[in-house]
Design goal:
Elements: H1 7-19, H2 23-30, H3 34-43, H4 55-67, H5 74-87, H6 94-109, H7 156-166, H8 169-176, E1 182-187, H9 193-208, E2 212-216, H10 219-237, E3 246-248, E4 254-259, E5 271-275, H11 283-293, E6 301-305, H12 315-319, H13 321-324, H14 339-342, E7 346-347, E8 353-357, H15 359-364, H16 372-378, H17 381-388, H18 402-406, E9 409-410, E10 430-436, E11 444-450, E12 459-467, H19 472-484, E13 487-494, H20 499-509, E14 514-516, H21 520-535, E15 539-542, H22 546-553, E16 556-559, E17 565-568, H23 579-588
Parallel strand pairs: 1-6, 1-8, 2-4, 2-5, 5-6, 9-15, 10-13, 12-15, 13-14
Antiparallel strand pairs: 3-4, 7-8, 10-11, 11-12, 16-17
Length: about 600
Protein backbone atom coordinates (compact mmCIF):
# COMPACT_ATOMS: atom_id res chain seq x y z
CA UNK A 1 0.00 0.00 0.00
CA UNK A 2 1.38 3.41 -0.98
CA UNK A 3 2.49 5.60 1.90
CA UNK A 4 0.35 8.70 2.53
CA UNK A 5 2.03 12.01 3.31
CA UNK A 6 0.47 14.98 5.05
CA UNK A 7 -0.39 18.13 3.13
CA UNK A 8 1.96 20.06 5.42
CA UNK A 9 4.88 17.81 4.45
CA UNK A 10 4.00 18.19 0.77
CA UNK A 11 4.05 21.97 1.10
CA UNK A 12 7.43 21.83 2.83
CA UNK A 13 8.80 19.75 -0.03
CA UNK A 14 7.37 22.17 -2.55
CA UNK A 15 8.96 25.17 -0.83
CA UNK A 16 12.36 23.48 -0.96
CA UNK A 17 11.86 22.66 -4.65
CA UNK A 18 11.05 26.25 -5.57
CA UNK A 19 14.04 27.51 -3.57
CA UNK A 20 16.31 25.42 -5.79
CA UNK A 21 16.84 22.18 -3.84
CA UNK A 22 17.21 18.99 -5.86
CA UNK A 23 14.87 16.01 -5.47
CA UNK A 24 17.57 14.01 -3.67
CA UNK A 25 18.10 16.85 -1.21
CA UNK A 26 14.35 17.20 -0.63
CA UNK A 27 14.12 13.46 0.08
CA UNK A 28 16.93 13.79 2.60
CA UNK A 29 15.26 16.78 4.28
CA UNK A 30 11.67 15.47 4.37
CA UNK A 31 11.79 11.68 4.06
CA UNK A 32 9.46 11.72 1.06
CA UNK A 33 10.55 9.20 -1.58
CA UNK A 34 11.99 10.43 -4.88
CA UNK A 35 9.28 8.68 -6.86
CA UNK A 36 6.57 10.50 -4.91
CA UNK A 37 8.37 13.82 -5.31
CA UNK A 38 8.69 13.41 -9.07
CA UNK A 39 4.98 12.58 -9.26
CA UNK A 40 4.09 15.71 -7.29
CA UNK A 41 6.34 17.87 -9.45
CA UNK A 42 4.81 16.54 -12.65
CA UNK A 43 1.16 16.19 -11.65
CA UNK A 44 0.91 19.49 -9.77
CA UNK A 45 3.23 21.44 -12.10
CA UNK A 46 5.51 22.75 -9.36
CA UNK A 47 7.70 24.41 -11.97
CA UNK A 48 4.92 26.92 -12.65
CA UNK A 49 5.22 28.18 -9.07
CA UNK A 50 8.91 28.92 -9.37
CA UNK A 51 9.76 32.63 -9.66
CA UNK A 52 9.96 33.73 -13.32
CA UNK A 53 13.75 34.02 -13.20
CA UNK A 54 16.28 34.21 -15.94
CA UNK A 55 18.59 31.21 -16.25
CA UNK A 56 21.30 33.42 -14.76
CA UNK A 57 19.34 34.13 -11.58
CA UNK A 58 18.17 30.52 -11.22
CA UNK A 59 21.72 29.17 -11.48
CA UNK A 60 23.12 31.83 -9.16
CA UNK A 61 20.62 30.77 -6.49
CA UNK A 62 21.69 27.15 -6.85
CA UNK A 63 25.39 27.99 -6.65
CA UNK A 64 24.84 30.09 -3.55
CA UNK A 65 22.85 27.28 -1.88
CA UNK A 66 25.62 24.77 -2.55
CA UNK A 67 28.39 27.17 -1.53
CA UNK A 68 26.90 27.49 1.95
CA UNK A 69 26.54 23.74 2.48
CA UNK A 70 29.09 22.15 4.80
CA UNK A 71 30.37 18.60 4.18
CA UNK A 72 29.11 18.32 0.61
CA UNK A 73 28.45 14.86 -0.75
CA UNK A 74 30.36 13.73 -3.84
CA UNK A 75 27.29 14.39 -6.01
CA UNK A 76 26.85 17.89 -4.55
CA UNK A 77 30.52 18.65 -5.03
CA UNK A 78 30.44 17.45 -8.63
CA UNK A 79 27.32 19.48 -9.33
CA UNK A 80 28.85 22.56 -7.73
CA UNK A 81 32.01 22.23 -9.83
CA UNK A 82 29.98 21.79 -13.02
CA UNK A 83 27.85 24.84 -12.30
CA UNK A 84 30.71 27.16 -11.43
CA UNK A 85 32.82 26.01 -14.37
CA UNK A 86 30.10 27.14 -16.72
CA UNK A 87 28.49 30.03 -14.86
CA UNK A 88 31.38 32.29 -15.82
CA UNK A 89 30.50 31.71 -19.45
CA UNK A 90 26.87 32.69 -18.91
CA UNK A 91 27.32 35.96 -20.73
CA UNK A 92 28.74 34.04 -23.69
CA UNK A 93 26.26 31.25 -24.13
CA UNK A 94 23.01 30.75 -22.24
CA UNK A 95 22.53 27.44 -23.98
CA UNK A 96 25.60 26.13 -22.17
CA UNK A 97 24.06 27.10 -18.86
CA UNK A 98 20.85 25.29 -19.71
CA UNK A 99 22.86 22.20 -20.64
CA UNK A 100 24.75 22.34 -17.35
CA UNK A 101 21.52 22.63 -15.41
CA UNK A 102 20.22 19.55 -17.21
CA UNK A 103 23.47 17.69 -16.51
CA UNK A 104 23.30 18.64 -12.83
CA UNK A 105 19.77 17.22 -12.75
CA UNK A 106 21.04 14.05 -14.43
CA UNK A 107 23.78 13.68 -11.83
CA UNK A 108 21.20 14.04 -9.08
CA UNK A 109 19.10 11.30 -10.69
CA UNK A 110 22.10 9.01 -11.10
CA UNK A 111 22.03 9.18 -14.91
CA UNK A 112 25.21 9.10 -17.04
CA UNK A 113 26.60 12.28 -18.62
CA UNK A 114 27.91 12.06 -22.17
CA UNK A 115 30.17 14.47 -24.00
CA UNK A 116 31.81 17.67 -22.88
CA UNK A 117 30.54 21.14 -22.40
CA UNK A 118 30.61 23.31 -25.54
CA UNK A 119 33.33 25.93 -25.40
CA UNK A 120 35.15 24.30 -22.47
CA UNK A 121 38.24 22.93 -24.19
CA UNK A 122 40.01 22.17 -20.90
CA UNK A 123 37.00 20.67 -19.15
CA UNK A 124 37.25 17.18 -17.65
CA UNK A 125 34.68 14.97 -16.03
CA UNK A 126 34.84 15.28 -12.23
CA UNK A 127 36.41 11.84 -11.73
CA UNK A 128 38.82 11.90 -14.68
CA UNK A 129 41.63 13.89 -13.14
CA UNK A 130 40.38 17.39 -13.96
CA UNK A 131 42.28 20.28 -15.44
CA UNK A 132 46.02 19.70 -15.67
CA UNK A 133 46.69 22.99 -13.89
CA UNK A 134 44.39 22.14 -11.01
CA UNK A 135 44.36 18.49 -9.88
CA UNK A 136 41.12 17.30 -8.37
CA UNK A 137 40.77 15.28 -5.21
CA UNK A 138 41.01 11.54 -5.84
CA UNK A 139 37.72 9.75 -5.43
CA UNK A 140 37.10 8.36 -1.98
CA UNK A 141 39.59 10.65 -0.20
CA UNK A 142 38.57 13.45 2.07
CA UNK A 143 39.28 16.96 0.91
CA UNK A 144 42.10 18.70 2.70
CA UNK A 145 40.84 21.15 5.31
CA UNK A 146 41.61 24.73 4.30
CA UNK A 147 41.21 28.06 6.04
CA UNK A 148 37.87 29.66 5.26
CA UNK A 149 37.98 31.75 2.08
CA UNK A 150 41.76 31.30 1.90
CA UNK A 151 43.07 33.29 -1.06
CA UNK A 152 46.72 33.29 0.04
CA UNK A 153 47.68 31.07 -2.89
CA UNK A 154 46.34 33.47 -5.55
CA UNK A 155 49.09 35.55 -7.12
CA UNK A 156 48.86 38.72 -9.23
CA UNK A 157 50.28 36.72 -12.13
CA UNK A 158 47.46 34.17 -12.04
CA UNK A 159 44.88 36.96 -11.80
CA UNK A 160 46.40 38.66 -14.85
CA UNK A 161 46.43 35.40 -16.78
CA UNK A 162 42.75 34.68 -16.11
CA UNK A 163 41.70 38.23 -16.96
CA UNK A 164 43.62 38.28 -20.24
CA UNK A 165 42.01 35.00 -21.32
CA UNK A 166 38.44 35.80 -20.26
CA UNK A 167 37.60 39.30 -21.38
CA UNK A 168 37.04 41.32 -24.54
CA UNK A 169 38.82 44.56 -25.47
CA UNK A 170 36.24 46.91 -23.95
CA UNK A 171 36.38 44.97 -20.66
CA UNK A 172 40.17 45.16 -20.67
CA UNK A 173 39.79 48.93 -21.13
CA UNK A 174 37.57 49.05 -18.04
CA UNK A 175 40.33 47.28 -16.12
CA UNK A 176 42.90 49.81 -17.28
CA UNK A 177 40.70 52.55 -15.78
CA UNK A 178 39.91 50.72 -12.55
CA UNK A 179 41.80 53.31 -10.47
CA UNK A 180 39.86 56.29 -11.81
CA UNK A 181 37.94 57.94 -9.01
CA UNK A 182 34.56 57.73 -10.78
CA UNK A 183 33.65 55.72 -13.88
CA UNK A 184 30.32 56.18 -15.68
CA UNK A 185 29.65 53.42 -18.22
CA UNK A 186 26.69 53.31 -20.59
CA UNK A 187 26.36 49.92 -22.22
CA UNK A 188 24.38 47.63 -24.45
CA UNK A 189 22.37 44.83 -22.95
CA UNK A 190 24.09 41.45 -22.44
CA UNK A 191 27.72 42.37 -23.16
CA UNK A 192 29.06 40.96 -19.89
CA UNK A 193 29.29 43.96 -17.55
CA UNK A 194 28.03 42.11 -14.46
CA UNK A 195 30.35 39.23 -15.31
CA UNK A 196 33.36 41.52 -15.70
CA UNK A 197 32.84 43.77 -12.67
CA UNK A 198 32.36 40.75 -10.40
CA UNK A 199 35.81 39.60 -11.49
CA UNK A 200 37.33 43.07 -11.13
CA UNK A 201 36.06 43.38 -7.56
CA UNK A 202 37.42 39.95 -6.66
CA UNK A 203 40.75 40.83 -8.31
CA UNK A 204 40.89 44.12 -6.38
CA UNK A 205 40.00 42.51 -3.06
CA UNK A 206 42.63 39.77 -3.45
CA UNK A 207 45.42 42.16 -4.50
CA UNK A 208 44.77 44.97 -2.03
CA UNK A 209 42.66 43.62 0.82
CA UNK A 210 40.20 46.44 0.15
CA UNK A 211 36.45 46.09 0.69
CA UNK A 212 34.16 46.01 -2.35
CA UNK A 213 30.44 46.70 -2.24
CA UNK A 214 27.81 45.92 -4.87
CA UNK A 215 24.59 47.91 -4.96
CA UNK A 216 21.86 46.45 -7.19
CA UNK A 217 18.23 47.33 -7.76
CA UNK A 218 17.08 43.96 -6.37
CA UNK A 219 18.39 41.22 -4.15
CA UNK A 220 18.22 38.79 -7.07
CA UNK A 221 20.72 40.83 -9.08
CA UNK A 222 23.00 41.12 -6.06
CA UNK A 223 22.92 37.33 -5.81
CA UNK A 224 24.16 37.11 -9.42
CA UNK A 225 27.27 39.14 -8.53
CA UNK A 226 27.91 36.86 -5.57
CA UNK A 227 27.52 33.70 -7.66
CA UNK A 228 29.93 34.99 -10.31
CA UNK A 229 32.59 35.66 -7.67
CA UNK A 230 32.09 32.22 -6.13
CA UNK A 231 32.40 30.71 -9.62
CA UNK A 232 35.61 32.61 -10.45
CA UNK A 233 37.25 31.57 -7.18
CA UNK A 234 36.30 27.90 -7.54
CA UNK A 235 36.97 27.44 -11.23
CA UNK A 236 40.20 29.34 -11.73
CA UNK A 237 41.81 29.33 -8.28
CA UNK A 238 40.37 26.24 -6.53
CA UNK A 239 39.10 28.39 -3.66
CA UNK A 240 35.68 27.70 -2.19
CA UNK A 241 34.09 30.91 -0.93
CA UNK A 242 31.36 31.07 1.70
CA UNK A 243 29.44 33.80 3.42
CA UNK A 244 25.88 34.92 4.06
CA UNK A 245 25.41 38.39 2.58
CA UNK A 246 29.10 39.18 2.96
CA UNK A 247 32.14 37.15 1.90
CA UNK A 248 35.19 37.89 4.07
CA UNK A 249 38.45 36.81 2.44
CA UNK A 250 41.40 35.51 4.43
CA UNK A 251 43.23 38.84 3.88
CA UNK A 252 40.37 40.70 5.58
CA UNK A 253 38.72 42.10 2.44
CA UNK A 254 34.92 42.16 2.59
CA UNK A 255 32.69 41.60 -0.44
CA UNK A 256 29.15 42.83 0.25
CA UNK A 257 26.04 42.41 -1.91
CA UNK A 258 23.22 44.85 -1.21
CA UNK A 259 20.00 46.02 -2.82
CA UNK A 260 19.51 49.75 -3.23
CA UNK A 261 16.70 49.83 -0.66
CA UNK A 262 18.96 48.39 2.03
CA UNK A 263 18.68 50.49 5.18
CA UNK A 264 22.19 49.50 6.27
CA UNK A 265 23.95 50.43 3.00
CA UNK A 266 25.43 53.66 4.38
CA UNK A 267 27.06 51.74 7.24
CA UNK A 268 29.70 50.22 4.95
CA UNK A 269 32.78 51.60 3.24
CA UNK A 270 34.72 50.36 0.25
CA UNK A 271 35.08 50.44 -3.51
CA UNK A 272 31.55 50.80 -4.81
CA UNK A 273 29.90 49.18 -7.84
CA UNK A 274 26.38 50.39 -8.65
CA UNK A 275 24.47 48.35 -11.21
CA UNK A 276 21.79 49.74 -13.56
CA UNK A 277 22.00 53.29 -12.20
CA UNK A 278 19.65 54.64 -14.87
CA UNK A 279 16.86 52.44 -13.49
CA UNK A 280 17.31 53.18 -9.78
CA UNK A 281 14.52 55.17 -8.06
CA UNK A 282 15.39 58.23 -5.96
CA UNK A 283 18.83 58.36 -7.53
CA UNK A 284 19.82 61.71 -6.00
CA UNK A 285 19.21 60.34 -2.52
CA UNK A 286 21.10 57.14 -3.30
CA UNK A 287 23.97 59.12 -4.80
CA UNK A 288 24.45 60.96 -1.51
CA UNK A 289 24.54 57.67 0.38
CA UNK A 290 26.95 56.19 -2.17
CA UNK A 291 29.23 59.22 -1.96
CA UNK A 292 29.41 58.71 1.79
CA UNK A 293 30.24 55.02 1.43
CA UNK A 294 33.20 55.88 -0.82
CA UNK A 295 34.13 59.30 0.61
CA UNK A 296 37.73 58.44 1.46
CA UNK A 297 40.16 59.18 -1.35
CA UNK A 298 41.27 55.53 -1.58
CA UNK A 299 37.81 54.31 -2.64
CA UNK A 300 36.62 54.14 -6.26
CA UNK A 301 33.05 54.39 -7.60
CA UNK A 302 31.83 52.59 -10.73
CA UNK A 303 28.34 53.16 -12.12
CA UNK A 304 27.20 51.14 -15.11
CA UNK A 305 23.86 50.69 -16.80
CA UNK A 306 21.76 50.30 -19.88
CA UNK A 307 19.92 53.55 -20.73
CA UNK A 308 16.42 54.29 -19.46
CA UNK A 309 14.89 57.71 -20.21
CA UNK A 310 16.29 61.22 -20.33
CA UNK A 311 14.06 62.24 -17.40
CA UNK A 312 15.90 59.90 -15.00
CA UNK A 313 17.76 61.74 -12.24
CA UNK A 314 21.06 60.05 -13.14
CA UNK A 315 20.92 61.43 -16.68
CA UNK A 316 21.91 64.88 -15.43
CA UNK A 317 25.15 63.41 -14.08
CA UNK A 318 25.81 61.60 -17.35
CA UNK A 319 25.09 64.68 -19.48
CA UNK A 320 27.09 67.06 -17.26
CA UNK A 321 24.04 69.10 -16.26
CA UNK A 322 24.61 68.23 -12.61
CA UNK A 323 28.15 69.63 -12.80
CA UNK A 324 26.96 72.85 -14.47
CA UNK A 325 24.05 73.54 -12.13
CA UNK A 326 26.14 75.59 -9.69
CA UNK A 327 28.22 77.35 -12.31
CA UNK A 328 27.50 80.75 -13.79
CA UNK A 329 26.11 80.81 -17.32
CA UNK A 330 29.36 82.19 -18.69
CA UNK A 331 31.38 79.51 -16.93
CA UNK A 332 29.48 76.35 -17.84
CA UNK A 333 31.55 73.48 -19.20
CA UNK A 334 30.77 71.62 -22.39
CA UNK A 335 30.12 67.88 -22.22
CA UNK A 336 30.32 65.92 -25.43
CA UNK A 337 28.39 62.73 -24.69
CA UNK A 338 28.11 61.64 -28.29
CA UNK A 339 28.97 58.08 -29.19
CA UNK A 340 31.85 59.27 -31.36
CA UNK A 341 33.46 60.97 -28.35
CA UNK A 342 32.76 58.28 -25.76
CA UNK A 343 33.36 55.02 -27.63
CA UNK A 344 37.04 55.01 -26.60
CA UNK A 345 36.46 56.60 -23.19
CA UNK A 346 36.70 60.27 -22.18
CA UNK A 347 37.42 62.37 -19.09
CA UNK A 348 34.82 65.10 -18.74
CA UNK A 349 35.30 68.51 -17.15
CA UNK A 350 34.03 66.94 -13.91
CA UNK A 351 37.04 64.52 -14.04
CA UNK A 352 34.73 61.51 -14.37
CA UNK A 353 35.65 58.89 -16.95
CA UNK A 354 32.77 58.13 -19.30
CA UNK A 355 32.54 55.22 -21.71
CA UNK A 356 29.83 54.06 -24.11
CA UNK A 357 29.72 50.53 -25.53
CA UNK A 358 27.04 49.68 -28.08
CA UNK A 359 26.45 46.16 -29.32
CA UNK A 360 28.26 47.08 -32.54
CA UNK A 361 31.23 48.38 -30.55
CA UNK A 362 31.29 45.13 -28.60
CA UNK A 363 31.26 43.08 -31.79
CA UNK A 364 34.10 45.13 -33.28
CA UNK A 365 36.14 44.47 -30.12
CA UNK A 366 35.87 40.70 -30.18
CA UNK A 367 32.43 39.97 -28.72
CA UNK A 368 30.92 37.27 -30.94
CA UNK A 369 27.76 36.65 -28.91
CA UNK A 370 25.26 38.39 -31.16
CA UNK A 371 23.76 38.18 -34.61
CA UNK A 372 23.08 41.90 -35.01
CA UNK A 373 21.04 41.53 -38.19
CA UNK A 374 18.80 39.06 -36.41
CA UNK A 375 18.39 41.39 -33.44
CA UNK A 376 17.34 44.21 -35.74
CA UNK A 377 14.71 41.92 -37.25
CA UNK A 378 13.41 40.88 -33.82
CA UNK A 379 13.13 44.36 -32.31
CA UNK A 380 11.57 47.60 -33.47
CA UNK A 381 14.07 50.34 -34.29
CA UNK A 382 13.23 52.21 -31.06
CA UNK A 383 13.67 49.09 -28.91
CA UNK A 384 16.89 48.11 -30.66
CA UNK A 385 18.33 51.59 -30.16
CA UNK A 386 17.38 51.60 -26.47
CA UNK A 387 18.45 48.06 -25.64
CA UNK A 388 21.56 47.69 -27.77
CA UNK A 389 22.70 51.08 -29.11
CA UNK A 390 22.76 53.09 -25.85
CA UNK A 391 19.98 55.49 -26.84
CA UNK A 392 17.90 56.97 -24.04
CA UNK A 393 14.12 56.97 -24.39
CA UNK A 394 12.77 60.45 -25.00
CA UNK A 395 9.85 60.21 -22.60
CA UNK A 396 8.81 63.83 -23.01
CA UNK A 397 5.76 62.54 -24.89
CA UNK A 398 5.10 59.64 -22.54
CA UNK A 399 1.90 59.62 -20.53
CA UNK A 400 3.69 58.07 -17.56
CA UNK A 401 6.50 59.64 -15.56
CA UNK A 402 9.70 57.64 -15.07
CA UNK A 403 10.41 58.83 -11.55
CA UNK A 404 6.83 58.03 -10.51
CA UNK A 405 7.15 54.54 -11.96
CA UNK A 406 10.49 53.85 -10.27
CA UNK A 407 9.05 55.08 -6.98
CA UNK A 408 6.62 52.16 -7.26
CA UNK A 409 9.37 49.52 -7.33
CA UNK A 410 10.02 47.43 -4.22
CA UNK A 411 11.91 44.34 -3.19
CA UNK A 412 9.18 41.70 -3.11
CA UNK A 413 10.83 40.14 -0.05
CA UNK A 414 9.05 42.96 1.78
CA UNK A 415 5.73 41.23 1.10
CA UNK A 416 5.37 38.65 3.91
CA UNK A 417 1.93 37.60 2.64
CA UNK A 418 3.21 36.71 -0.84
CA UNK A 419 5.01 33.35 -1.00
CA UNK A 420 5.61 32.29 -4.61
CA UNK A 421 6.80 28.85 -3.50
CA UNK A 422 3.41 27.96 -1.99
CA UNK A 423 0.61 26.16 -3.81
CA UNK A 424 -1.46 29.26 -3.12
CA UNK A 425 1.18 32.01 -3.41
CA UNK A 426 -1.16 34.75 -2.21
CA UNK A 427 -3.15 32.41 0.04
CA UNK A 428 -6.84 33.28 -0.36
CA UNK A 429 -6.37 36.98 -0.85
CA UNK A 430 -8.12 38.36 -3.93
CA UNK A 431 -6.32 38.65 -7.26
CA UNK A 432 -7.13 40.37 -10.54
CA UNK A 433 -5.81 39.04 -13.88
CA UNK A 434 -5.23 41.05 -17.03
CA UNK A 435 -4.42 39.55 -20.40
CA UNK A 436 -3.10 41.14 -23.58
CA UNK A 437 -3.26 38.53 -26.37
CA UNK A 438 -0.49 37.68 -28.80
CA UNK A 439 -0.48 39.31 -32.20
CA UNK A 440 1.61 38.33 -35.20
CA UNK A 441 5.05 39.08 -33.76
CA UNK A 442 4.63 40.46 -30.26
CA UNK A 443 4.18 38.56 -27.02
CA UNK A 444 0.99 37.74 -25.20
CA UNK A 445 1.19 39.07 -21.66
CA UNK A 446 -0.54 37.87 -18.50
CA UNK A 447 -0.42 39.95 -15.31
CA UNK A 448 -1.61 38.89 -11.84
CA UNK A 449 -2.18 41.74 -9.38
CA UNK A 450 -3.09 41.62 -5.72
CA UNK A 451 -6.34 43.54 -5.16
CA UNK A 452 -6.30 46.15 -2.35
CA UNK A 453 -8.52 45.17 0.56
CA UNK A 454 -9.05 48.67 1.95
CA UNK A 455 -9.22 52.11 0.29
CA UNK A 456 -5.76 53.60 -0.23
CA UNK A 457 -3.93 50.27 -0.20
CA UNK A 458 -1.61 49.55 -3.13
CA UNK A 459 -2.11 47.22 -6.05
CA UNK A 460 0.77 44.76 -6.25
CA UNK A 461 2.08 43.03 -9.37
CA UNK A 462 2.54 39.46 -8.16
CA UNK A 463 3.72 38.02 -11.46
CA UNK A 464 3.80 38.65 -15.18
CA UNK A 465 4.20 35.98 -17.86
CA UNK A 466 4.84 36.29 -21.58
CA UNK A 467 4.05 33.78 -24.33
CA UNK A 468 5.11 34.01 -27.96
CA UNK A 469 3.73 32.25 -31.01
CA UNK A 470 1.24 30.06 -29.11
CA UNK A 471 -2.31 29.14 -30.17
CA UNK A 472 -5.51 30.22 -28.43
CA UNK A 473 -5.88 26.99 -26.45
CA UNK A 474 -2.37 27.26 -25.04
CA UNK A 475 -2.97 30.85 -23.99
CA UNK A 476 -6.27 29.93 -22.35
CA UNK A 477 -4.66 27.04 -20.46
CA UNK A 478 -1.93 29.30 -19.05
CA UNK A 479 -4.51 31.76 -17.77
CA UNK A 480 -6.37 28.84 -16.21
CA UNK A 481 -3.20 27.62 -14.47
CA UNK A 482 -2.72 30.98 -12.79
CA UNK A 483 -6.41 31.25 -11.93
CA UNK A 484 -6.40 27.86 -10.18
CA UNK A 485 -3.51 28.95 -7.92
CA UNK A 486 -5.18 32.22 -6.87
CA UNK A 487 -8.48 33.56 -5.58
CA UNK A 488 -9.30 35.35 -8.83
CA UNK A 489 -12.01 38.00 -8.75
CA UNK A 490 -11.55 39.45 -12.23
CA UNK A 491 -10.08 38.47 -15.60
CA UNK A 492 -9.92 41.25 -18.17
CA UNK A 493 -9.05 40.31 -21.77
CA UNK A 494 -8.63 42.54 -24.80
CA UNK A 495 -11.18 41.24 -27.31
CA UNK A 496 -10.27 43.65 -30.09
CA UNK A 497 -9.51 41.50 -33.11
CA UNK A 498 -7.54 38.33 -32.42
CA UNK A 499 -8.10 38.45 -28.65
CA UNK A 500 -11.69 37.33 -29.01
CA UNK A 501 -10.61 33.73 -29.62
CA UNK A 502 -8.82 33.53 -26.26
CA UNK A 503 -11.75 35.26 -24.58
CA UNK A 504 -14.25 32.65 -25.77
CA UNK A 505 -12.09 29.76 -24.49
CA UNK A 506 -11.62 31.42 -21.11
CA UNK A 507 -15.35 32.09 -20.91
CA UNK A 508 -15.97 28.32 -21.00
CA UNK A 509 -14.34 27.86 -17.58
CA UNK A 510 -14.71 31.42 -16.16
CA UNK A 511 -18.07 32.83 -17.28
CA UNK A 512 -17.45 36.15 -15.48
CA UNK A 513 -14.46 37.07 -17.68
CA UNK A 514 -14.60 40.74 -18.69
CA UNK A 515 -14.25 41.65 -22.38
CA UNK A 516 -12.25 44.82 -23.02
CA UNK A 517 -12.93 46.19 -26.48
CA UNK A 518 -10.59 49.00 -27.41
CA UNK A 519 -12.12 52.36 -28.26
CA UNK A 520 -11.04 55.90 -27.48
CA UNK A 521 -13.23 55.85 -24.37
CA UNK A 522 -11.90 52.49 -23.17
CA UNK A 523 -8.24 53.39 -23.72
CA UNK A 524 -8.78 56.64 -21.86
CA UNK A 525 -10.39 54.77 -19.00
CA UNK A 526 -7.49 52.27 -18.82
CA UNK A 527 -4.80 54.95 -18.88
CA UNK A 528 -6.54 57.28 -16.43
CA UNK A 529 -6.94 54.43 -13.94
CA UNK A 530 -3.25 53.49 -14.25
CA UNK A 531 -2.22 57.12 -13.80
CA UNK A 532 -4.41 57.32 -10.71
CA UNK A 533 -2.77 54.39 -8.91
CA UNK A 534 0.80 55.18 -10.05
CA UNK A 535 0.80 58.87 -9.20
CA UNK A 536 -0.84 58.20 -5.84
CA UNK A 537 1.73 55.52 -4.92
CA UNK A 538 -0.89 52.79 -5.04
CA UNK A 539 1.04 50.57 -7.44
CA UNK A 540 3.99 48.32 -6.54
CA UNK A 541 6.15 46.00 -8.63
CA UNK A 542 9.47 44.21 -8.41
CA UNK A 543 12.60 46.35 -8.37
CA UNK A 544 14.72 45.61 -11.41
CA UNK A 545 11.76 44.69 -13.62
CA UNK A 546 12.74 47.08 -16.42
CA UNK A 547 10.22 45.58 -18.85
CA UNK A 548 7.27 46.95 -16.87
CA UNK A 549 8.90 50.37 -16.62
CA UNK A 550 9.84 50.47 -20.30
CA UNK A 551 6.37 49.31 -21.38
CA UNK A 552 4.58 52.12 -19.56
CA UNK A 553 7.00 54.70 -20.97
CA UNK A 554 6.07 53.57 -24.49
CA UNK A 555 2.47 54.75 -24.05
CA UNK A 556 1.90 58.23 -25.45
CA UNK A 557 -0.93 60.67 -25.93
CA UNK A 558 -1.92 61.21 -29.54
CA UNK A 559 -4.82 62.55 -31.59
CA UNK A 560 -7.10 60.94 -34.13
CA UNK A 561 -7.63 62.28 -37.63
CA UNK A 562 -10.61 64.25 -36.34
CA UNK A 563 -8.55 65.84 -33.56
CA UNK A 564 -9.79 63.74 -30.64
CA UNK A 565 -7.29 62.79 -27.94
CA UNK A 566 -6.48 59.11 -27.48
CA UNK A 567 -3.62 56.93 -26.24
CA UNK A 568 -1.34 54.63 -28.19
CA UNK A 569 1.83 52.60 -28.11
CA UNK A 570 3.79 50.87 -30.82
CA UNK A 571 1.47 47.86 -30.89
CA UNK A 572 1.87 47.16 -34.59
CA UNK A 573 3.04 43.94 -36.21
CA UNK A 574 6.54 45.37 -36.13
CA UNK A 575 6.48 46.24 -32.45
CA UNK A 576 4.28 45.04 -29.60
CA UNK A 577 6.55 45.94 -26.75
CA UNK A 578 4.01 47.66 -24.46
CA UNK A 579 1.98 44.46 -23.97
CA UNK A 580 2.86 44.01 -20.28
CA UNK A 581 1.64 47.56 -19.49
CA UNK A 582 -1.70 46.94 -21.19
CA UNK A 583 -2.17 43.57 -19.44
CA UNK A 584 -1.58 45.29 -16.08
CA UNK A 585 -4.15 47.94 -16.99
CA UNK A 586 -6.64 45.21 -17.92
CA UNK A 587 -6.31 43.98 -14.32
CA UNK A 588 -6.41 47.44 -12.73
CA UNK A 589 -9.70 48.29 -14.42
CA UNK A 590 -11.46 46.00 -11.92
CA UNK A 591 -11.36 48.93 -9.49
CA UNK A 592 -13.49 52.03 -10.21
CA UNK A 593 -11.55 55.13 -11.22
CA UNK A 594 -12.98 57.10 -8.31
CA UNK A 595 -12.05 54.82 -5.45
CA UNK A 596 -12.38 57.23 -2.52
CA UNK A 597 -14.07 55.48 0.34
CA UNK A 598 -14.83 52.39 -1.73
CA UNK A 599 -15.64 49.30 0.27
CA UNK A 600 -14.14 46.15 -1.08
CA UNK A 601 -16.46 43.73 -2.86
CA UNK A 602 -14.00 40.88 -3.05
CA UNK A 603 -14.66 37.46 -1.60
CA UNK A 604 -12.43 34.87 -0.02
CA UNK A 605 -12.54 31.29 -1.23
CA UNK A 606 -12.00 28.28 0.98
Amino acid sequence: MARRYSEELKQTAKQLFVRGYTVTEIERETGVTERTLYNWIKNEDWDSFCPPDTVEIALSRRINILSERENKTDAELNEFIRLVETFGKMQKDHAVAIKIKAEASAIEKGLPIYGSIPGEANYREPDSGGDQDRPRQAKGKKREKKAKNDISGITPETLDKVREELFFEYQQLWYQHRDDRIRLILKSRQIGATFYFAFEAFDRAVRTGDNCIFLSASRDQAEVFKAYIIAFAQKYFDVELKGQGVIILSNGAELRFLSTNSNTAQSYHGHLYIDEVFWIPNYKKLNKVASGMAAHKKWRITKFSTPSAISHEAYSEWSGEMYNQRRADNNKAEFDISHANLKNGWYGPDKKWRHMVTVKDAEAQGCDLFDIDELQDEYSSDDFDNLFMCKFIDDSQSVFNLSKLLACTVDVDQWPDYKPDNARPFANKPVSLGYDPSRTRDNASLAALGIPLIPGEAWRVLRTDSYHGQNFQYQSNRIKDVREAHNVQHIGIDTTGIGHGVFELVQDWYPLVTPIHYSMEMKTRLVVKALDVIENSRFKYKAGDHEITRAFLMITKTTTGSGLITYASSRSVESGHADVAWSIMHALIYEPINNDGRKTTVTFSN
